[in-house]
Amino acid sequence: MLLFYIALHVQIERARVVAVDTVSALRNRCGIDRPIRACTQFSAYSLDASCNSSDDGWSIRASAWIAPQMIVLAPEAMTHEYLHISDVRQSANDYLRVVSAQRYGTANQCEDAAAREIAAFGERIKISVQESNARRHPTKYHH
Question: Is the full-model pTM beyond 0.90?
């Protein structure tokens, strides 16, 4: 069981905070045209995935690195933005748990799957952000 926990690692860097002093600067940096006081961007990330053999087949050992950036007009909005970071962290943990639970019959199958996961990680981050926005702003985001 210890190996399972070692295999799941999500490192979230401390959010880089960029202060802006106008609503238009905030909207331009965030790419959002509705009223907001801050936003968090997740444009820096990576997934490392390698394969390990065990008695029940091959599995992916994965770790993720994510560096959020907050664009802030109103500092009191940062508390809310940290909720988005927490949501993305949890989503990434859940994702790595699923990826690491899969078993493959050969090293090649595992390595192919690991390569696919690495390539798809950016899309997974985008989905996580969308899910967090839908959760934290239910009237603004419709499924």
Answer: no
